Amino acid sequence: MKDMMRRVGVLVAGFCAVLAMTSPSATAAESEPDDMVTVAGWGKIYEWSPGHASGKRLDYAVKAQAVDIWNDNNKSNQRWQTYSYGNNWYAFRNMSNMECLRYEGRGKQMTTIPCDDSNSYKFKGVKSGGYWTFRPMNAQNLCMEVRSRGTSNGSHVTAWNCNGDSHQRWKATAV
Q: What's the whole-model pTM score?
């Protein structure tokens, strides 16, 4: 009986080693998500960088109670948890105030407000070339962008006509 238990233990250990060698590394999987969430519900937490402004992050500005870009500060106001509704529809909850990113209208600065199930919190995410573009459900001809291609701290995040420029593309980094 001891011999049989020892063989089972060796078999299980061997299987686990093979499984570990064939699984993708957590670092590679988290740094470049193909789909932020694969099932409905709250998923991973990311920092979002605009494609045109190196070192900047999507930022909840506490004093202004609005969304802009700011230098990477490694704080919760730049961390966003994703919620998947399926079919590439997402919501983003800020980790400092636990409120959701909200589309306020064409050209208006985005804000955060307590999460609910309204369409003003839902964004269609499309990934291409390592970057994401996000279209508000209430205005699918618009894309989330940094207003006027701004690169300075405090540049507003809005939604404007989609044009494919780098200020409308966002790179995800899992934290």
A: 0.78
Instruction: Please give the single-letter amino acid code of residue 114.
Output: P
Identify whether the C-beta of residue 103 lies closer than 8 Å to the C-beta of residue 120: yes
For residue 37, CA distances in Å to 30, 94, 122, 137, 154 come to 11, 16, 14, 18, 29
3-state secondary structure of 130: coil
* Domain boundaries along the sequence of the chain: 33-174
What is the mean predicted confidence (pLDDT) over 164-175? Answer: 96
The Cα 112–Cα 97 span in angstroms is 8
Of the CATH numbers 2.80.10.50, 1.10.10.10, 3.20.20.70, 3.40.50.10240, which one belongs to the domain with range 33-174? 2.80.10.50
